[in-house]
Design a protein that fits this description.
- The chain is globular.
- It is mainly α.
- The N terminus is likely disordered.
- α1 packs parallel to α3 and α3 packs antiparallel against α4.
- Strands 1-2-3 form a three-stranded antiparallel sheet.
- It contains four helices and three strands.
Amino acid sequence: MAKGSFGRSTGPGLVLWLGLALLVIVADQFTKTLVLGWFQLGDSRPVTDFFNLVRVHNTGAAFSFLAGAGGWQRWFFVGIGALASVFIVWMLRSHAGQRLFCFALSMILGGAVGNVVDRLLHGYVVDFLQFRFALLEPVFPGGYFPSFNVADAAITLGAICLILDELIRVKRSKG
């Protein structure tokens, strides 16, 4: 593996992690394109008793945070996504050999870029996966978890993997 400036690895490790992030972006944008082509805003198609395909536009962040802020949030979230992406690429380059950590960062990077692309193209993020669970009714109206997309799922998986990576790291340092 080649060494770049400052002795960091610039070989296949970084390429692998960036390729994985690119797969997430492609899957995310492909599914959103299908939804935009097949659904009108507000459409809902039941798939099972607990799962619907829907078309929702989210101008905010997670759980529609700042959705009604008047438009400035679009560029705010684009900026945060861009800064986070630069930081994540730097982290991937610096730690390309740490598999679980880099997998997590790749998922987060792919998801972040996927949602930034939506904000740049549409001014909102396209969400289309909707789950309903009765146990959620006290928290979410009708038990419907807020709609999300492939990018959001990748970010969530990445966050879970980051926590798991840290737990493993702590366990190793104690043992």
